[in-house]
Amino acid sequence: MREGDIHVDESRQGEAIHIEQPFAPSNGLKMFLESYGCAMNFSDSEIIASIMSGVGYVTTMDETEADLILVNTCSIREKAEERVRNRLKEFKRYKLKNRRLVVGMLGCMAERLKESLLEQEKLVDLVVGPDAYRDLPSLVKQVNGGQKAVNVLLSREETYADVSPVRLDKSGVTAFISIMRGCDNMCSFCVVPFTRGRERSREPKSIVAEAQDLFNQGYREVTLLGQNVDSYKWNLDIKGVIKDSEQPIVRFAELLDMVAKVNPDLRVRFSTSHPKDMIDDVLHVIARHENLCKYIHLPIQSGASSMLKRMNRGYTREWYLDRIAAIKRILPGCALSTDIITGFCGETEQEHLETMSILKEVGFIMAYNFKYSERPRTLAERKFEDDVPEEVKSARLTEIIKHQRSYASVLIQAMVGKVYRVLVEGVSKKSTEKFYGRTTHNIVVIFDKGDLSVCDYVNVRAIDCTSATLKGEVTTDKADA
Ligand code: 5AD
Ligand code: SF4
After folding, report:
1. What pTM did the predictor assign?
2. Is there a domain that residue 5 lies in?
3. 204 CA distance to ligand 1 centroid (A)?
């Protein structure tokens, strides 16, 4: 997920994810937990579920029977906030029927808006920022005692390393592991540094232990999450000075190596990489381990150096292309995806065309495209005018989507005929007779169930494709990738 938002699955963007907790000792109290935005938020919800199950809350999928409703929110674009606000208005109405109901707003919006939703709009009883989840049980108690409760303190240390997340993905195949929190970059469009605070990395041993534990439970894929995974560092301070001479230094390349060694049958993905920080060492580690997936999400945001400067991204078009060349050299066949913002402050037609041309030049299997949405407190809000007309933003977005689709479809078509090692993830939505799984490149493949089970690895020959997925046949032939 990737920078501010961490996209693992485009369909998840902006959608509310409802969370059911498998088991917990109950005190009869029910909690309804709804999560918006990125994978990092989803992963945080697993921490929240764990903390609340410790004080006896069980989750329910039925919001009308809940004693506690928690909404884990996203601030990345204005639309995301609007959606949450409407939902909170709906929840407020439930309070007319159930006077004991407590409604809490968690996550990035809580951090951004602080007391305002509680005091001015009176939409919620509880406001808790991303670094204060340990305080949730006592804050809920405070609300039950008749007070409103707020904790939006950001931390320089909190990583929730010792909290064992309640796994909320019901498939039991793939799981998220949060490896760091916050972001120290100041991309001028982005609200994340203000809502999630300073960057801090989680202790590597606890990450490896979590991956091992997931593997022992039967999981076969983990995604390591951070706003900028390439700047993961353990035992180094901000200036790069070693903190404890008895302890090893662990950067992202070493961490990947450690997690890859948990088991060759545990696939490892990660998100999000930053072009300015992605070094060849990381690529060489990926090349060494088959279970490190050959798929890199590398947000470009714009293809024009002049625009990248206004965005404060810390790289140029040429630098980005150099990183792409390194990936293609060290990891031939590696799939690439990206994020693009259209209509950022002062975007000229020429800059837009440069974005279009880089899409063609690189060849992304997937691009997540967003219209610029001005966010309060960001550098862009303070320094630049949001001056690209809405219709121009929309037209450019449409043009980018159309071209990107055609480039991606050529790449998918080129996969037909080859054999891929696929991790079986679940029953296909379209047919109960079929399974779906993914290749190392994160491409979905549909194939007959046969006598396979979820969590198996199987070789599948791609025999056909749609615009974004492959259809395949199980084979005993050796995999090409
Ligand atoms: N407006 C539009 N898109 C944004 N993103 C981040 N901030 C904004 C914004 N203010 C996009 C970037 C980032 C992705 C997660 O969301 O492309 O990589
Ligand atoms: Fe990503 Fe930049 Fe936002 Fe950090 S500031 S989360 S690097 S887009």
Report:
1. 0.94
2. no
3. 29
Ligand lying closest to the C-alpha of residue 370: 1
Considering only CA atoms, which of 115, 111, 183 is closest in space to residue 153? 111
Overall number of domains in the chain: 3
Alpha carbon of 274 to ligand 2 centroid (Å): 9
Pocket of ligand 1 (CB under 6 A): 2-5, 76-77, 189-190, 299, 301, 339, 341, 370, 372-373, 375
Tokens of 419: 């054999």
- Closest ligand to 229 CA? 2
Same domain, yes or no: 22 and 67: yes
CATH number at 430 reads 2.40.50.140
Separation CA 233–CA 23 (nearest Å): 35
The answer to whether 58 touches 26, Cβ cutoff 8 Å, is yes
From 413, 445, 463, the end of a domain falls on 413
Mean pLDDT for back-to-back runs of 10 residues, the chain (481 residues): 36 52 64 95 96 93 93 96 93 89 96 84 92 97 93 96 89 96 97 96 97 97 97 86 88 98 98 97 98 98 98 98 98 98 98 98 97 97 98 98 96 98 96 97 97 97 96 97 95
Question: Ligand 2 — pocket residues by CB below 6 A?
Answer: 3-4, 183, 185, 187, 190, 192-193, 227-228, 274
| Secondary structure (3-state) at 329 | helix
Residues 26, 71: one domain?
Answer: yes
